[in-house]
Amino acid sequence: MRIALAGTGAFGIKHLDGLQNIDGVSVTAVVSRRLEQAEEVARKYGVPVATTSLDEVLASDDVDAVILCTPTQLHASQSIAAMRAGKNVQVEIPVADSWADAREVDRVQRETGRTCMVGHTRRFNPSHQWVRRRILAGELSIQQMDVQTYFFRRTNMNAAGQPRSWTDHLLWHHAAHTVDLFQYQTGEQSQLHHAVQGPIHPELGIAMDMSIQLRTPSGKICTLSLSFNNDGPLGTFFRYICDNGTYIARYDDLVTGREEPIDVSHVDVSTNGIELQDREFVAAINEGREPNSSIASVLGCYQVLGELETQLASQR
């Protein structure tokens, strides 16, 4: 399978590292906003084409699929362009920054029949897979998920601490991880949800602090705290409070509520969530099936985000 990567920032590099471990995959092109950056990454990973033009890549017969790690504001339009060009597409989270655009991506996927997978990595992290398997086996039932998403980002920077050309968003990016994971793990769509946010940053134009609550029809709840003002441990920390134990997931690692490590090394073929996400993308295309975290399967997350955005707008 010949894959092109658009976006050579922190997560683009993570995908390139993961793709190197998948048999039968070659990266045939990289796209970046700056040609010199595209060329540097192409040299490092042995990619034959480096360009600033996604249109050029989508027109190429040497590309079967595209992974989009571009700015959030471009995700929906670029996903649609890729599918209409006959390419399968994996787009990093979020698929869109509006409910209307997310629905349009879903519509075009159904129209074209192309694979469209969204990078909801939490579905693939071994830590969350371990919990899900126990839920599906009837060994666990979630009572509450308590989640903290904390960064220190008072300027535009990416996960590698480098300047970024666009502004990240607590609701449409970081909350999307948790809203989707909560609904995925409980098997229910949130019935009640509410959000509040702190002041809007005068330069970035976004809220730097936010709190979200969700509840499913059966009464399972999720409490999510998000901040770009947190000068301390950074990242997202998931506490699963269950009927049969408490578990804390930190990306690919898992401990009990008493900080006792749980071995998740045998959950899947890799302990790298991004690599597992890419493996699912490739496998779904090869097998002609819908991937886990397809646009159709994550659409309920974006419906909730759209309703929360309406709530937050009314508070200003």
How would you characterize this protein structure?
The protein is 36% helix and 23% strand. By secondary structure, it is of the alpha/beta class. The protein has two domains: 2-118, 3-Layer(aba) Sandwich (Rossmann fold), CATH 3.40.50; 122-273 and 301-315, Dihydrodipicolinate Reductase, domain 2 (2-Layer Sandwich), CATH 3.30.360.10. The strands form two sheets. A seven-stranded mixed beta sheet has the order 8-9-10-7-11-12-13. A six-stranded parallel beta sheet has the order 3-2-1-4-5-6, sandwiched between helices. The chain is globular and about 50 Å long.
What can be said about this structure in brief?
With 316 residues, the chain is an alpha/beta fold. It has 9 helices and 13 strands.
The CATH homologous superfamily of the largest domain is termed Dihydrodipicolinate Reductase, domain 2
What structural category characterises the helix and strand content? alpha/beta
Overall body shape? globular
* Number of spatially distinct domains: 2
The CATH architecture of the largest domain is 2-Layer Sandwich
* N→C terminal distance: 48 Å
Low-confidence stretches: none
Which strand-content bin applies to the residues?
Answer: 15-25%
Largest pleated sheet: 7 strands, mixed
Return the average pLDDT rounded to an integer.
Answer: 95
What's the arrangement of strands in the largest beta sheet?
8-9-10-7-11-12-13
What sequence of helices (H) and strands (E) makes up the elements?
EHEHEHEHEHEHEHEEEEEEHH
